C-alpha cells in the first residue's frame, strides 16, 4: 500500500506538534522526493552511510533525528553536503527529520523511549521551570549500585559507557539523550542519585564527583536510537506501510 507523501508529513508534524517547538534546524520535510510512500527507512543521522543503505533498501522516505540545514552552518552545497543531497535527489527519496520534537514527545520521544529500554519509571521533567531542558527524572524499581546500573546500560545499548561512580545507591535517575551533559546541574538540583546522557565534557566529571552523584555517558548515537524507531513504527501502523530501521554504527 502507498500513501501520499504530504499525508505522511502532515501526520508526523501533527503527531510531534513540530510547529510549536523552536529548534536549531527545520523540522519536517527537508528534501522532497517522489509523491507516494510505501516504504520508510529510519536512522539516527542522515549520514552518507544511511542514505546508501536506504537506496539499497528501495526506500521512498528516510526519517531521521539528525537531518540537515543547522543554524550557523555553511549554506553552500559543496563536498559532503553536495554528495548527500545528490544521493537523495538522484534517487527521488524524501528526507524527513525531527530534532527537538523527537526528544520531547511523551510517547515516541528519545527520552521516554530510553527510559522504557532501561526500565526507568518516568516521574516528570528534569527542570519543570525550564521547558528548554528536555531531560526527564524517574526511578528504578529497585535500588542498585552505580556499577550494576552501568552494566544494565551497557547490556541494553550494546556499548561500554563511561562511568563516574558516586557514593550512594541509585534509585532516582535523571537523564537526557544525546548531548545533554550540560544539564547535570539541573539533575543535581533535582536530587538524583545518577545522571545519564550521551556525551561528556571535562567539567561534567568534576560536577559529578564534587556533588556525590554518579554520572554515565552512554553515547550520543546509542541513546538516541529508539525515538526514531518508535516514530517509524507509529507511521507504519497508521498508514499500513513498510518500515525498516537501519543502525549505522557510531561510537560517539
Automatic annotation (TrEMBL):
One of its GO terms (cellular component) is cytoplasm. It comes from Metapseudomonas resinovorans NBRC 106553. A divalent metal cation binds at residues 65-66, 103, 220, 224. One of its GO terms (molecular function) is metal ion binding. Keywords: Metal-binding. Belongs to the GTP cyclohydrolase I type 2/NIF3 family. The keyword Metal-binding applies. This is GTP cyclohydrolase 1 type 2 homolog. SUPFAM superfamilies: NIF3 (NGG1p interacting factor 3)-like (SSF102705). Pfam families: DUF34_NIF3. Gene3D superfamilies: NIF3 (NGG1p interacting factor 3)-like. It comes from the Bacteria.
Amino acid at each position: 500500500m502507498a500513501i501520499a507523501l504530504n499525508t505522511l508529513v502532515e501526520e508526523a508534524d501533527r503527531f510531534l506538534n513540530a510547529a510549536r517547538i523552536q529548534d536549531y534546524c527545520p523540522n519536517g520535510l527537508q528534501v522532497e522526493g517522489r509523491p507516494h510512500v510505501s516504504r520508510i527507512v529510519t536512522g539516527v543521522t542522515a549520514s552518507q552511510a544511511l542514505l546508501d543503505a536506504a537506496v539499497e533498501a528501495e526506500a521512498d522516505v528516510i526519517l531521521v533525528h539528525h537531518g540537515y540545514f543547522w543554524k550557523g552552518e555553511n549554506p553552500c552545497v559543496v563536498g559532503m553536503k553536495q554528495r548527500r543531497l545528490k544521493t537523495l535527489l538522484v534517487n527521488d527519496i524524501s528526507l524527513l527529520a525531527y530534532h527537538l520534537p523527537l526528544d520531547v514527545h511523551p510517547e515516541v520521544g528519545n527520552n521516554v523511549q530510553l527510559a522504557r529500554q532501561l526500565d526507568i519509571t518516568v516521574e516528570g521533567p528534569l527542570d519543570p521551570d525550564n521547558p528548554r531542558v528536555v531531560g526527564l527524572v524517574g526511578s528504578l524499581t529497585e535500588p542498585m549500585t552505580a556499577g550494576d546500573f552501568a552494566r544494565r546500560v551497557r547490556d541494553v545499548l550494546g556499548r561500554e559507557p563511561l562511568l563516574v561512580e558516586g557514593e550512594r545507591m541509585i534509585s532516582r535517575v535523571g537523564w537526557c539523550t544525546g548531548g545533554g551533559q550540560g544539564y547535570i546541574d539541573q539533575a543535581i538540583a533535582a536530587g538524583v542519585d545518577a545522571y545519564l546522557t550521551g556525551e561528556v565534557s571535562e567539567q561534567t566529571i568534576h560536577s559529578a564527583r564534587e556533588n556525590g552523584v554518579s554520572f554515565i555517558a552512554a553515547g550520543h548515537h546509542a541513546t538516541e536510537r529508539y525515538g526514531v524507531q518508535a516514530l517509524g513504527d507509529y507511521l507504519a501502523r497508521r498508514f499500513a506501510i513498510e518500515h525498516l530501521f537501519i543502525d549505522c554504527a557510531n561510537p560517539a
